[in-house]
Amino acid sequence: MRYETPASAKEAAGLLKKEKGAAFLLAGGTDLLVKLKMGIVEPDLVVDIKRIPKISDIQSSAKGFTIGAAVSGAELGEHAGLKKAWPGVVEAANLIGSDQIQGRATLPGNLCNASPAADSVPALIAAGAKAIVVGPLKKRTVPVEKIMIGPGKTSLAKGELIEAITLPKAEPRSGDAYLRFTPRTEMDIAVVGIAISLKLERGVIKKARVVLGAVAPTAIVVAAAAKAIIGSKLDDKALDKLAAACSAACNPIDDKRGTIEYRVRVAGVLAKRAAKVAFQRAGGSL
Amino acid sequence: MSKSTLVSTTVNGDAVEFACPTDESLMTALRDRVGLTGVKEGCGTGDCGACSISLDGRLVCSCIVLGVEAEGRSIETVEGLSQNGVLHPLQQNFIDHAALQCGICTPGFLIAAKALLDRNPNPDESEIRYALAGNLCRCTGYDKIVRAVQATAKDMRKKGRS
Questions:
Q1: Which residue segment(s) compose the domain that A237 sits in?
Q2: Which residue blocks in chain A are alpha helix, DSSP H?
Q3: ipTM, 2 dp
Q4: pTM value?
């Protein structure tokens, strides 16, 4: 196994592209090195991106935030500005694994591992996050919802990697939230995850994004669920419609963590709770 | 077997060099090449926390870090906790509260508990349980560990020592 520490994202992309054998990108390693240990992957090349300048930085500007691909969950949780602007994104990222995992795990890693139950992904999508994708020749900006295309599969071409995730500036009177259900409180995988981002105008929901995780092969944007609460003050009728739309959008698996029926039902219940949290964070009163 | 690479690090304050294959975990390198067997292997997949270390001040599972990633980094292990033969208050309280039985998980718990107390000198029980959720103990039932951490927090706040 060759181990390389390129000095730029472009150089990393070139190394990944050129390799004829099995090539993997290493950031936090919390998925890759487990697969290595278990013999699921046998890399010929591992490209560690952590030595790339600025790749471990969170930059904030008038446009929003640019989060480098090697920024860990713990660092996200310690960034007051990011937490204030996008609390749902930060709480979703911080739910992944233990403190030890938080010390290493990254947003692009969670995204590119492409688990249907990835906690940070619904929150990123709800927030309108974009991935800065670097290839050997060009750079492109891709909405996060276009990255994962199925369990373990992404739309990235050979040689492409995510250099950073961008989040827009949070609008005034907006709020986001992420909730997940797991059989155990910690160190578990979501049975249902739900992220809701919304914006208020005079106490009424003006815009909303509702994204479910762990109930379909990828995270899903549920337009009908957003429609159910737009124009409302999150009254009981709107909440019931939201829950029904979320349950209807589910296409889950049956497994030891939850049956299909259970996941469908819980999706609706969690949707109501997440909507209330986001609404209150936006300054709405229930 | 991958080619060996020379890695220069700081371990518990001392400059340490070791050579390890590129696919070897930092846990294995610390145990077998540096001789720090306080770093324990439990699951080997980042679930149990027995191999917990501090890497550049960040709590991590050393079983899911490559040895070569440690180049230029600073590592702290359980071996660095005691000072001049005096046990760290966490170590003393683990003994006093019988917070260990077989001891395999103990170094990881000590490192994780220290990471918690470094950033939060006055954690409540629930914060302690969350902070230690990445460390598994199959002997104690956790209660004595939580008590030992609470007692340490109290002692350290009194003495102002970290």
A1: 189-281
A2: 9-18, 32-38, 73-78, 80-85, 87-94, 99-102, 107-113, 120-126, 223-229, 236-249, 260-281
A3: 0.96
A4: 0.96
